[in-house]
Amino acid sequence: MYYRLLVPFWDFALGIEEKLSDIAETNIYRLYLNVGCFIPFKKDKLGSQCIIFRTKLHRKNSARSLDMKRYLVFWVEKCLYELNNPRMTFVFDSTDATYASMDIEQITFIIELFSSYYPWALGHVIVYNMPWILKTVWGGIQALIPAEGTDRFKFCNGNEIFAYIDHDCLPDFMGGSIPVPFRELTLEEIDAIPIDPEIVCYRFRPGERVIKRAESRICSTPAITKFYRDNFGLFRNGSRRVNGHEAMSIFLCRPEENLEFKKVGNVQTASFEITSCSPDGRPIVFKVKVNCLQGYTVKPFCGVLENGASMVVNVSKEMAYPVTNQDKLLVQAVVTDQLPSGQLVSEFWQKLKPDNIFQKKLRCCLANEYGLVTEETTYPPRSMTGLVGGQHTPAIRESTSELEKKVAELSARYRAQQIFNSVICFLLILNFAITFHSKMCNGIGSPRWYC
């Protein structure tokens, strides 16, 4: 199923205006789906959708930083709006993680993302099996969070995680009962992924380098495809063109992306047209959902369309609740053989399987008196509110920069300590060998041949 997730977003964490829009299954970096580093999974005990981040599989890569953020926003939008989850919980599995796995920029991005755009949606941040060498780093990350948000961070080891997530809702690599389809990668493969966004070099024999594409080494499998399709609706149906417009297989909307509201009296109004275009000619049943219920009225919010028929849906919002870019409409439709009556539409939707539902999102925006979309309402405000308020953002960036420097310094010290330990071990072994040799040569009896 093809869909367009309309997420207007600027990356303030890097201090640049990088707009993340039109994020969809078709244009996210597909290698992330195959690696198994960032995995949407089951729910925790409070009903929040869990995202499991396997820290040891991650390496900071500036060239792919934007792709990682797009990938994150894709799953946040999908889990909250398409899968109707009220909250999300991030689980950082830090088993066998090292300083090389830490990416302060991405963690800070998650904090600012939820504080600015989804302040209601963050459940817990669970750090699992944190090595002692990373305690300083996580302590610095907690310092970036205002006091009212620190209670969302939970640290646990081993079976302690079962206090937050049930055993049958965890993957096997975290002590759960659910096997995952992802292949366990070697350290060589993990370190090689960030070298180049498309091509990775592997050394098989001294002096020989064989070039392979990352996708061919860490490729998708039928099991991985089935995992995403059965649990999250990916890889289902493709899109097609109808009268020059891109259709969602069984229907299309006009406009296709932005639903522009105009001020009329004491309300803000907009409308869009939905057209049935099912490939097999059967009628469709549709409904419209709004992610922000305050002040919105949708007429009609549901209906039935014969193949080729169209219907105009009118949307209004009270002036007391201004239209913002965070407001979205989700249009869902399904083909049917038996047309339900008006009273049975709600029951009809309850009995449907998610695999049969096609959907599309429309982003709400406010047009000015000249019909142009205003910048201040179309795109996110520059201030940060919620868990990390706007007044905290400059301090967070400064603290993040300092923390990254400390992590780099600690990482360098850690590598130096590893080299020092290796040298000490070598010298101890050498000293033992020399001592053993001396005792054997100076012992009772004739000298041995190696003395």
Automatic annotation (TrEMBL):
One of its GO terms (cellular component) is endomembrane system. Residues 25-182 form the CRAL-TRIO domain. It comes from the Eukaryota. InterPro entries: CRAL-TRIO_dom, CRAL-TRIO_dom_sf, ER-organelle_contact, Ig-like_fold, MSP_dom, PapD-like_sf. PROSITE patterns: CRAL_TRIO, MSP. SMART domains: SEC14. It holds the Pfam family Motile_Sperm. Residues 250-367 form the MSP domain. PANTHER family: MOTILE SPERM DOMAIN-CONTAINING PROTEIN 2. This is Motile sperm domain-containing protein 2. It comes from Varroa destructor (Honeybee mite).
